[in-house]
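Weekly structure sync - notes
Attendees: PM, LS, DV (DV joined late)
Agenda: review two folding runs queued last week.

Item 1: First target. Sequence and structure tokens pasted below for the record.
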Amino acid sequence: MLWPFNHFRKPRLAPRGTIEAIYGMIVTQAREPLFYQDLDYQGFGVPDTVNGRFDLLLLHLWMVLRRLRQNEAGGAELSQALFDHFCADMDANLREMGVGDLAVPKRMQAFGEAFYGRSAAYDLALTDSSEALALALCRNILEGGQSENARRLAAYTEAAIAQLGQLDDAALLAASWRFPSPRQAQGSAKP
């Protein structure tokens, strides 16, 4: 008789290189200078602060995790590994900034709450309308102002979600894709 020991095996995780590649694309896109430029310079007006950069990172992470949830072949494992990589990166950044060991867990909890709160707000807004998404982005990323920039950021977000949605699972899991250029969304914002 064969004993079913395979249930004691750890689940197969996504390759570390894939997770790092996808996370690297998220971070690179969130650091795109155009997001931080003013409207006068064809930018989106996101505050170039630690909070502004963190919020853009969360936006891009949310978009990718949203797409990964739709993937039936390994998407759940990859999305969990990607989120874990994000948490490890945030922990390392806090320690690099000199946050003490006792304060790191509280800050990490605040990061988790920020991520889940924004994710829920963006998911709800996305099911409502483009204007609702713009309001959610305005409130969470643009500090409650700049409604025109919020509409442009919502148009970019919808374009990125659409592009991610068109990827086949193999391309998504192989990290052989890119976010759309923020400039491509410039003309698609509704006045």
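Item 2: Second target, run right after the first with the same settings.
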Amino acid sequence: MFKLIRPATSEREIKKSRFATIAAPVADEEAAKAFVAENSFADASHNCWAWRIGADYRFSDDGEPGGTAGKPILQAIEGQEVDGVVVVVSRWFGGVKLGTGGLARAYGGSAAECLRLADKQPIIATTQLSVAVAFTDLALVEARLETFDDIAVTARDFDENGAVFRLDVPDSRLLALAELLRDLTSGRASLDPDILADPPADP
């Protein structure tokens, strides 16, 4: 699966109707709804849209015949294997009817073209890891964490013993990072989940 790095747009004309498409990454339903509202043209004949965020999805034909707009847009999202995305396709009617099949191809094709052109990156499976570190180890751990481009420090909270880091770690790096933190702190760092508690058996 992929996610968009930034919003993308495309435009094309089909039998005198103009189709303008905009796609953008979104984190939740509220953001998707807000994006649709902000990117619907008052003078367009129809502003049709779809979004998918994980297992959740919605779509709208906005007055076009049922199944000819929103669903083809959603199918384009699925066909391009994009997640966490909203796509709005606005149509300005040019006087020539496209028919239900033509509409579905126009809306789905417009969405697919926009998503093909968009800057994307693979979605990497990650795990949230909490690391409790004593004050004596804090500077060393913090300095080492700053050297990783693919590990995000999402929070750092202090208590009477030291600090608790909340990290977003690619699953492929979890075990190596846990071992590094153990070695840096001579086993004093506390991990949640404790992925070193039950290490893999030797083959």
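Discussion on item 2: The chain has five helices and eleven strands.
Action: LS to circulate a short write-up before next sync.
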